[in-house]
Structure formats: structure tokens, C-alpha cells
Amino acid sequence: MATAASMMPYFGQQISSKHDMVPDWTNQEVSTGTTIMAVEYDGGVVIGADSRTTTGAYIANRVTDKLTPIHDRIFCCRSGSAADTQAIADVVTYQLGFHSIELDEPPLVETAANLFKASCYRYREELTAGILVAGWDRRRAGQVYCVPIGGMLVRQPVAVGGSGSTYIYGFMDSNYKPGMTKDQCLDLTAQALSLAMERDGSSGGVVRLASISEEGVERRVILGNQLPKLSTQHTHTHTHTHTHTHTHTHKHCSVFWSTLF
Amino acid sequence: MEKRCADTQVKGVSTGTTILAATFDGGVVIGSDSRASMGGEYVSSKTINKVIQVHDQIFCCMAGSLADAQAVIKAAKFHLSFHCVQMETPPLVIAAASILKDLCYKNKDELQAGFITAGWDRKKGPQVYVVSLGGMLISQPVTIGGSGSTYIYGYTDAKYKPNMSRDECLQFATNALSLAMGRDNVSGGVAHLVVITEAGVEHVVIPGNKLPKFHDE
After folding, report:
1. Average pLDDT value for chain B
2. Residue A74, number of CB atoms within 10 A of its CB
3. Sign (positive/negative) of CA torsion B40, B46, B51, B52?
């Protein structure tokens, strides 16, 4: 096979991954190797995600929106297989919408989280989906629920997920404090996502943020060149041309935002 | 994907450990946790010291297979002291790192060990070198390694600044080890830290209950 294929392309039935005609990534599943994060604050939640979807080494979508609305004040952050998470989110959106009509009032975040858990747990062998459910409701204000692979459900004040999340556990543990304001949460999320995107090959692109409260949902995008700068972005020469801002004061990142709903 | 990050942890065959080294203004801090575990289920030692002295002002931390690392360090210590006798002067940190690199590179098929070498010498002052699994040698101002290091990449990127003071750097290293030990089940125990400056070497051991605590502890 190898000698025959050296001069002429061989269009038989064996176009294997070693053949140069077809790149490796066409055989791979589309995955949101990703970094997602959700933080509760008094009065709502802040959620964030990177924007990269990969098929192997190819970036299928560099401006993905992984923050998916499930209801007016409930969002989910998706990580894992793009197809699986989209399918689950569609199912839960339908179920939650129906439930809300029956109840004749806005649904609880806990209900949405339990619907995710039900699907993720029942079909755990077939699915690869790690989901953060976050939102606001009248009973318990801002809530974040974590539904990782396997289908566990747990409520946490701050949660991260996706392949890039391992790199920011330390940062999150040291920088999150209970009782932060909305702007502090937005800063923390943007900084954490930038750090993860810097280290994880499957995360990158832009940072998408959203804050959900009683008033509604505000969405923002931070483009690549406006991400908070890291203190380790320096060369070995000992001259530093810009001062290193401390983690909480990177107000130089400008944001674009629009209000929905 | 959580699956992918589990793979990257297993692929390097990192010993369950967290090691790090960071330069500051006038010296370098090198440190590690103290847990040796078998397969993540049994802690075979709570208090081993993974920071090994290879010369007066040069220390090494090991990552990977503990047996391989110990054998390599033993050979490196011999080579280094011989080199020191021949040169009639204290060895450079890069000499120690290069010796480790040679051993790792020439025996790359049999070995699975990586090292962080840190020290002070008269020529270049405080330095940190990383010898990775296949035998690459690079110099970095700060570096982390071991299975627990994945959890503190973000923290290190955000918090490390070049030319910190000795106390700031010690606090940074303590925090980083503590955070990693808090998230990695095969890192733990006490924090062993060594501060190396022109004046000499200082060992700092911080027991588990004196490590910094974070918001959910």
C-alpha cells in the first residue's frame, strides 16, 4: 500500500488517518474543549466562557457562544461534546418551557438544574457533557449548579468546568471571596478565563460574559486583544515597558455589551 | 473536556506531587509537598522530602518516577562533585542542570523523570532550570511541576512577579503549594521550602495545619 500510494492517490476503501489526503481532524468528534465559569453574587450570577470549538487540532468555530439561554433568567454553560450539550440543552429548554406554562410562573433554577441532571444521569454512558446551570429566581436569588460528567448535581457559590478549568482552580480558590459585588465577579471571571485560555490549547478566542439578575440579562464580549494582561507575559530581558497591574484593577479592558430580554 | 484533562495528567506519569521554584530579587525559592502515594489510594509516606541538595547552593526537585529520579540524582551528584574538584571552584547552577539533562536525554528510552534545579552561583546569581521528561533544558524565572501543578498554572501566571522580595516570594510559594495540595489528592502533607541566596541556604518547613487557608476551608 505504501509503495503504490507514493506516486498516485489511492481512492480505495482504506483512506486511513495516516494518509496525507485527509487530515486527522475529519475523524474527530467536535468538542467544546473549553473553560466555563459561574459565580454567585448577592442579587444574581455572573457566567463566562471562552469561544473555541475544536475538532481535534482544527478550530471549527472560534467565536462559539457556549452560554445558552434555557429560560428568561436561566442560562447554562456547556462543555464537552458540542453535539451532546446542544441536544441536552434543547431538551431541557422544551421541558422547562412546558413546566413554566403549567406553573404559570417563572421556573426555579433548581428545577432547570434537576432537568439537566435527569438527562445527564440517565444517559451517562452515551453522553459527554459537563454543564453549569446558573440563573436567578425569586425564591433563592442567584444560584449556580454544577452538573459534571456522570450526572451529579451540586450547588456551589462558584464553579468552573471544562478542560481549561484545571489550570485555574488555584487562582479561583485564592481570589474568590464570599460577598463580592457584581463588578468584582465580572473581573474575577474575565481574569480567570484569560488565564485558562492562555494555558489550555482547547480554550481560546474571546471571553463571553453574562450577568443575570432580577432586572434581566446583560451580555458582554471581551475581544482577544483586550483581555487582561498577565504578569508572566514578560521576556528575560530585565526592562519592563509596561507596569504590571494587580489582579483586581485591570479596568483597562474595555467591554461591549447589550441587554437582552 | 474533563476526559482530556485526566489524560494529560496520566500521560506524563507525574509522581503525585507538586513542585515549584521561583526566583526573587537576590535568591531563589524551591519547594515541594511531602506526600508519596501509591495509585492515589494509599499514602505511603506523609513526610518525604522531595527537595534534594546536590551541592552547597544548588537544590533539585524531582518529578516522574521516584525510582528513576533518585537514580539519576545519585549519578548527577557524583558527576557534579567530580566536576567541582576538576574546576576547583563551586559549580554553576547550569552545570548541575546540564548534567541532569545529559542523563535524562541519553537514557530517554528507559527513564521517566523530570527535574527542577534551582540555586545561586557567582556568575549569574539566582537561577531556575527545568529538565523535562525527554531531556529538554530551559531556564525560566518561575516554574511548577508534578500532578498538582495543573491546578496552579492560573495562580502562578497571575501572581508571580519578577524581582519580588524574599518574603513575598516565600508567601507566593507557600500559597501556591497550599492551593495545589488543596485540589490534588496525591499532593499533601507539609510544605518543604528552601530559600537559596548568596549568603546561604535556609530550610522552611510548614506543617499542614499552618498552611494558608482559603475561602472554602
Report:
1. 88
2. 28
3. negative
Catalytic residue among A34, A93, A111, A189: A34
Across the interface, of B2, B155, B160, the residue whose CB is closest to A174 is B155
Which pLDDT score, from 0 to 100, does residue A237 have? Answer: 39
pLDDT tens digits, B30-51? 999 998 877 777 888 888 888 9
The pLDDT of B198-206, averaged and rounded, is 95
Confidence (pLDDT) at B12: 37
Question: In Å, how far are A45, A50, A90, A101, A134 from A96, measured between CA atoms?
Answer: 19, 26, 10, 9, 14
Query: Taking chain A, what is the end-to-end CA distance rounded to the nearest angstrom?
Result: 60
A34 is catalytic: yes
Residues of chain B positioned with their CB less than 8 A from the CB of A193: none
Q: Name the one residue in this structure whose C-alpha cell is 489511492.
A: A10
Best of B150, B155, B160, B214 to disrupt the A interface by mutation (most A CBs within 10 Å)?
B155
- Ranges A66-75, A231-240, B143-152: which has the least confidence: A231-240
Active-site entry in B17, B18, B143, B197: B17
Cβ separation A232–B182 shorter than 8 A: no
The Cβ-side half-sphere exposure at B110, using a 13 Å CA radius, reads 8
Phi, psi of B24 (to 5 degrees): -135, -175
Whether A28 contacts chain B with CB within 8 A: no
Q: Which amino acid is at A65?
A: D
Q: What is the pTM of this model?
A: 0.79
Helix (H) or strand (E) holding A107: none
Asked whether the beta carbons of residue B183 and residue A162 sit closer than 8 angstroms, the reply is no
Chain A contact set for B3 (CB, 8 A): 128, 149
